[in-house]
Amino acid sequence: MPTNISIRDIPDVVYEKLKQQAELHQRSINSQVIFYLKQMLRSHRTDPDQIIARAKKLKREAKGSLAIQEIQQAIKGRP
């Protein structure tokens, strides 16, 4: 069963940004807050086996190869 909470003393700037984001995503402010809470509480820790499996898959799918100079140039060109 859902629980109700109240949040007091929200700074005006924070409220306005929240309101803008809710409108942008066609959500109520309440739904936007719940969306953000779920995102924050979701574990960001990735299983190392998943990372390795993804890397192996990408390696198999990769076509061609890059010379070290091309890699260094790409790194230099990053923002």
Textual characterization of the structure:
- Helices cover 62% and strands 0% of the residues.
- The longest helix is centred in the C-terminal third of the chain and has 14 residues, at 48-61.
- It has four helices and no strands.
- The chain has one domain.
- The chain is elongated, with a radius of gyration of 22 Å.
- By secondary structure, it is mostly helical.
- The chain has helices at residues 12-24, 29-41, 48-61, 68-76.
Counting helices, strands and paired strands, the structural category is: mainly alpha
The total count of strands amounts to 0
Count of helical stretches: 4
Report the portion of residues in β strands. Answer: under 5%
Order of helices and strands: HHHH
Average predicted confidence as pLDDT: 87
Residue windows where pLDDT falls under 50 for at least 5 positions: none
Write down the overall geometry: elongated
What is the domain total for the residues? Answer: 1
Task: State Rg.
Answer: 22 Å
First CA to last CA: what distance? 47 Å
How much helix, percentage-wise, in residues?
55-70%
For the biggest sheet, the summary is: none
